[in-house]
Amino acid sequence: MKKKLVFWVEKYFYDPNIFQKLLSYILLPISFLYCFVMKTRFFLQKEEDFNIPIISIGNLNVGGNGKTPLVTALASKYELSAVILRGYGRKSKGLYVVRDFKDILCDVYISGDEAQIYADKLPNSIVIVSEDRKKAILKAKEMGAKIIFLDDAYSKHDIKKLDIVIDIDTKNRFCLPSGAFRDILHSTKKVIILKENIDFTRVVTLKNETDKMSLVTAIARPERLDKYLPRVISKNYFEDHHTFTKEEIDKILFHDNSESLLVTYKDFVKLKCFDVKLSLLDLDIKVDNKVFELINSYK
Questions:
Q1: Structural domain boundaries of the chain?
Q2: Nearest to residue 169, comparing CAs of 66, 276, 287, 293?
Q3: Which pTM was predicted?
Q4: Which of 78, 167, 243, 299 is the most exposed place for a label (fewest CB within 10 A)?
Q5: pLDDT tens string 144-192
């Protein structure tokens, strides 16, 4: 039931049918109220300066838009960097140091999938999960970080930071619940808006390819993968941040008689503990130098 609801909502936001479009317009009065609340909340908050460069990378819409690989690409270029995120989907609460400058300190169930990606791909950075971003910032400073990247923290208007937002190409610019936007651009707030194929490009590499692969993925809007896919036996979609079970995986392998599962890195960090062969669609981001110039000027 949860899986069907998640996919219905994703279609409603990004590829609505006639009924969903009608529902979107019916809900517009609530969306206008939601936008008003977001604007009021922004004006009531006061920035706190932590005396360290803080860069927030995110998107205004719900659902994936390449945020994690972009944060990885940016943080990897700076010495003594830290990445801080909420850790959505993790089986823990509170503050956890997922990686220090040397080692990974907890598993994917404690950290959540996105934090584990950072821990794997940023061996020279600190990675911290915490619902309280301010507490995590202080912890990162205590551990020796010299620049901090906040994953998905545009709405944290009470933190002094440079906001970078990934633009999304959609005709529906409404706020929740009529559209996918959970926050709005505020006229008095400085924001750097990045566009794909202009400010950054995606590079996808297929690793450990086999002749018979079954796609298994738990990312938002999984149809985004279609343009990168090689030939696969089947496509098996799960809701974003889904925690896989061995039974689910064995069932797919048995049904397809496949040689490996084709996964994204977000899936890989959760499936690598299972005794199955994994093929990987590894996504990297190439960032235009002007983005680094903007970050460096903020520092």
A1: 43-200+287-298, 202-286
A2: 66
A3: 0.93
A4: 299
A5: 999 999 999 999 999 999 999 999 877 778 999 999 999 999 988 999 9
